[in-house]
Amino acid sequence: MFKEFKEFAMRGNVMDMAIGIIIGAAFGKIITSIVNDVIMPPIGVLLGGVDFSTLYLTVSNPKGVVFNTIAEAKAAGVVTINYGLFINTVIDFVIVAFVIFMLVRQMNKLKKAPVLAAPNTKDCNYCFTAVPIKATRCPHCTSELKA
Length: 147
Fold this sequence. Notes:
The protein is mainly alpha-helical. It has helices spanning 2-9, 12-46, 70-75, 83-110, and strands at residues 57-60, 79-81, 121-123, 130-132. The protein has 2 domains: 2-116, Large-conductance mechanosensitive channel, MscL, domain 1 (Non-ribosomal Peptide Synthetase Peptidyl Carrier Protein, Chain A, Orthogonal Bundle), CATH 1.10.1200.120; 117-147, no CATH class. 52% of the residues lie in helices and 9% in strands. The chain has a two-stranded antiparallel ribbon with strand order 1-2. Strands 3-4 form a two-stranded antiparallel sheet. The longest helix has 35 residues, at 12-46. The model has no long low-confidence stretch (mean pLDDT 84).
């Protein structure tokens, strides 16, 4: 069983997948930083200074206390719906999906369609034997071939 597992784990596809997952995780961190640190602040300014990461609703707040941050609400044991963080995550996903789409699109453009070689034989009309393109008679049945 160990030998089979070793063969499975060392296959090219499994190693490629592992490398892809590791690079994808690192790429995800970069995109998250771009969303949180570069894209969302200007969007927040355009929407009147809103910071999406601080938007939340309290579900259970029996004392009616107002909290300034999600961390304060959580520390007090209040249940919150963090819809601002969800908005950030959705924007993060859309950006990642768009970048992956653009990469796949470029990869598909780089793939060249296989060039088909010109045929070097033709079939005899009478015996259907393959003969060279330049032949004028079939070597099998000696019929005269059309050009």
